[in-house]
């Protein structure tokens, strides 16, 4: 490239800086440096770049920015040096090499070649060109230091390089620490050894993050797709980008791929430039069949969700079975949010049963409807594990376990009977605290002091206890209060930590009924045996749409929830010595909101609160015994649901239960309204 071409590029860069406000930012940054006492080897300036705007100023410069960002950086480095010298912005800068320019891309052109699919191979063809990648953070390191820039001096005192700022080394994308600072550089003038001037070294922050393609999560749902393998990619986050990514979260990263040479290996990694939270798109329309159901059930706030639950998972369990569980699974699915800004209202479910095989299948099937669903495998870590970082820093690398991978979704733990005592205790601690703690021993990871890190947990847990397994003989049965469930090997505290406890008992002839149902399904290959005709996709779309709804609590619903909570707390503390935690009020609100969302409404009605109270009271009774609020065994589904008449009958019974709840509140929490305002 001729010197004339370079001159015109620099001119274009100056015009762009002037138009985009970059020059003003440069002046501001210089003023900040001017105020600092200490001199440094290099001074870093960030320049915001919108390639489209650059192209408008000069197409050639725009092309270089998009396809050779290192060269573009050089151009802007010269221009900034000239500006600083001409305008006398910063006396401390003596040579151009003291200027470290970081081009911050604000946008990329909206064309496919600027998006890199992490599943596509070979990736290595894309080098040093800014691209978008999308993925999920599965591991990250602690923040460590790296050398942004350093000054080297010739050890020969007579040489001109023994002072001044001729020999400055600056970190470039993809370079290792070894490339920036080491002790075997020789002087270009006299060939003597060079020595770093340690006083002037500039350090920056660095963090390594492992990203996987979002599709890889499908493998963790428990589906069998043995032929697929996914590869993670390492991102380098530097300086102000450190700590901007959370484990288990999804992001769209604008980055520059680079080869990192670390003899004898060369790894392909990405230098992050701009990081945005991102959520994979999902269909948000409700199928025509559910819309029709919505129209037909408009008269009752209970019917839509009841039929949706009744017809759910018919491939696995015949209609009429496990209706409460199916409803709770749908409520839990609806109450998930991957958006990290939103509050996560968890809805954990523990099912005690003597029919683990079918229920395990029902839970696995439901998990496939979750936006994010992880089935925990005993061979993997449940919360978090540590390893040493392999990219030179040697610091602790924290890997997400199943619960963190399930961020914003559901983590299915399976049968709790399969876990050892210490694991069950760990589950209880995590459920109670809603955080995952990681202990980093200083000695092992080159730190000065031991560290305890904690990560917030945003997922709901589903688990089973098989009480048919006679190897766990419960000691609860002898002295248990009326109405409690046999929890097998599970401590009551752990059951308490799960929000909802459900009992699914299967007796005698139903086993045969199941067999008949499954055989019929097999023979007729899923043809509609019953009048319910909602496909798995219909449910997927219903859940996806419902979880996006923003709902609002009506005052009627709030009164029932608070009143029931106050009454129940007073009563159970007095008679059973059970402390109803604040967690139960969160659970009640979460259930009522979820029922409202599942019914595709946005205002939480008293009727939603009634369902929440019925589910919650049943759960507390299974844990601690019944209360004067006497409920039928399957309170949310007190009668069969075979036809329209039975739906009407159910509405009448629920209306009656609604009155019972109100009476219960007036009897045991008179003036609950005033408590509400107090708390
Ligand atoms: Zn020299």
UniProtKB/TrEMBL annotation:
Keywords: ATP-binding, DNA damage, DNA repair, DNA-binding, Meiosis, Nucleotide-binding, Phosphoprotein
Domain MCMDC2 N-terminal: 9-108
GO annotation (BP), single: meiotic cell cycle
Top-level taxon in the UniProt lineage: Eukaryota
Keyword Iron-sulfur: no
Record-stated family: Belongs to the MCM family.
Cited PANTHER family: DNA REPLICATION LICENSING FACTOR MCM FAMILY MEMBER, MINICHROMOSOME MAINTENANCE DOMAIN-CONTAINING PROTEIN 2
Role summary: Plays an important role in meiotic recombination and associated DNA double-strand break repair.
Name by which UniProt lists this protein: Minichromosome maintenance domain-containing protein 2
Source organism: Knipowitschia caucasica (Caucasian dwarf goby)
Taxonomic lineage from the root: Eukaryota, Metazoa, Chordata, Craniata, Vertebrata
